[in-house]
Amino acid sequence: MIINHIFLFILLISTVCKSIEVNSNNGLLIRSAIPIENKTWENWNGEIHIFPNAIFEPSALEDLIDIVKLAKINNKTIRCAAQGHTISSLSVTENYLVVVTNLNKVTVQKHPKYGWTATAEAGISLSDFETILRNYDPPLTIDSATSYNTFRVSGVIATGSHGTKTSSSIMPDQLCSIKIVIGSGEVSLLGIIYSATFRVQPMYKLRMTNNFILINEWLNPKNIKTILESSDGIEFYYWPFNGFNQSDPNPLDPNRDNIWIIILVRTDEPVSFTQQQLEQLHESQRQYEIQQYELRSSLVQNPEATPNITATLWNNFTSNGNTSFVYQAPDAIHHEVSEESIKYELMEIAFKVDPDFSNIVTEYRYIMKLLYDFARKGKFPLNVYVKFRIIKSTETLLSNIFNKNPEVLYCHVNFLTVLGTPSWEEFAELIALRFFDKYKAKPHWAKEWEFIPNVRSYLSEVLSDQIKKFEKVREKYDPDKIFFDNKSLQDIFSKTLDS
């Protein structure tokens, strides 16, 4: 399918506006391109704060077309945004910013080729999208959603984001079709996303098992392989210094640290909770997340307290021991409750998995060792977690897990720490450069990567073949580069195309 081969994030998302008639110099009629006056835009964690020439909030396809026409008339470029969870600079612009959160309609239909499909406008959240699918007759679900359900559909697609299930790869792989407004204002292949049609399936259930085990007792390639072959998805979490014991002569002993393993297995068993019980549980989890965040936030000023606080939080979190419950699929996949008031630093990098899974173990242990090396120097750059997920490759050209072999596995390593944590970038740079050098690994476009030394030159090299193919399509549908207003991407592309 051509979408899967060329599509990805040259423009993040789409937007809508209210109606007005404006006569342009060349006679075009612009009906609905009213910008928001005197408004700035800030992303989710506040690290990006911009003052574009105009911000638009479209609510219909016609609005989006008029915005693109207006940009062309006024010689302006366009970037897009939704909820703002992208913390790289992909949405940054000095020209027109289109915010798509008012595009939030969904239609469900039976397709002769794909079975059940659902068409979602660009700005709907995964939560609202899945609620509509869940309440449909018959109940439906999408197979490759991200961990957090507050993300917007087009942002997830445009950045090549992925979920937990190994076989599902990235969310763009579930696309049947996509409707895009191109630089001429027509609806075609490459431009601002208006809507996306996904393959969906009858609702199913997943048993989610949480295991907490000493790392040294469990972490080996054989155990990873066994679990992967017998499950639908796995996640490994490491909370730094979770075995810290202040009363011990050697309080910082990595041999006491545990690994948290989440295993998802499809099942026909009844769900463990009613929807009302789940809502109550999620609210309790949300309040707990806020309490944890408040404690961890104190570490920005007192990083030396990191081992004590992270170990205390770990002991509270695991006090009930191993657990196993059955959920409807979206409830298991979104087991991390999203709380918008919590602000983090995030970096995620994906590397190709060795056939024997040995490099997963190697890198897990390297990250642990590096954190303890930092600790011995009085530095504590990570205070939330490191998460490993294993999923199949994709043929989406600019994805960080692009591979023509659909059976190749990639390991995504996600790093999460409180915003402003001292030594974070120093630590993250070491990880990134190691992964680049050893595996030709690539960062997740939506998370932090632009601070990594020489990263643009590196990406222009490792993505060279894909960029050249993508550029042929981009030139055809966006010859005036209306949507190519991003300095990082421009730099990466120019280094490739000029070489």
TrEMBL record:
<dbReference type="InterPro" id="IPR036318">
    <property type="entry name" value="FAD-bd_PCMH-like_sf"/>
</dbReference>
<feature type="domain" description="FAD-binding PCMH-type">
    <location>
        <begin position="48"/>
        <end position="224"/>
    </location>
</feature>
<protein>
    <recommendedName>
        <fullName>D-arabinono-1,4-lactone oxidase</fullName>
        <ecNumber>1.1.3.37</ecNumber>
    </recommendedName>
</protein>
<dbReference type="InterPro" id="IPR007173">
    <property type="entry name" value="ALO_C"/>
</dbReference>
<dbReference type="InterPro" id="IPR016167">
    <property type="entry name" value="FAD-bd_PCMH_sub1"/>
</dbReference>
<comment type="pathway">
    <text>Cofactor biosynthesis; D-erythroascorbate biosynthesis; dehydro-D-arabinono-1,4-lactone from D-arabinose: step 2/2.</text>
</comment>
<dbReference type="Pfam" id="PF01565">
    <property type="entry name" value="FAD_binding_4"/>
</dbReference>
<keyword id="KW-0732">Signal</keyword>
<dbReference type="InterPro" id="IPR006093">
    <property type="entry name" value="Oxy_OxRdtase_FAD_BS"/>
</dbReference>
<dbReference type="GO" id="GO:0003885">
    <property type="term" value="F:D-arabinono-1,4-lactone oxidase activity"/>
</dbReference>
<feature type="signal peptide">
    <location>
        <begin position="1"/>
        <end position="19"/>
    </location>
</feature>
<dbReference type="GO" id="GO:0016020">
    <property type="term" value="C:membrane"/>
</dbReference>
<comment type="similarity">
    <text>Belongs to the oxygen-dependent FAD-linked oxidoreductase family.</text>
</comment>
<dbReference type="InterPro" id="IPR006094">
    <property type="entry name" value="Oxid_FAD_bind_N"/>
</dbReference>
<dbReference type="Pfam" id="PF04030">
    <property type="entry name" value="ALO"/>
</dbReference>
<dbReference type="InterPro" id="IPR016166">
    <property type="entry name" value="FAD-bd_PCMH"/>
</dbReference>
<dbReference type="InterPro" id="IPR016169">
    <property type="entry name" value="FAD-bd_PCMH_sub2"/>
</dbReference>
<keyword id="KW-0560">Oxidoreductase</keyword>
<dbReference type="InterPro" id="IPR010031">
    <property type="entry name" value="FAD_lactone_oxidase-like"/>
</dbReference>
<dbReference type="GO" id="GO:0071949">
    <property type="term" value="F:FAD binding"/>
</dbReference>
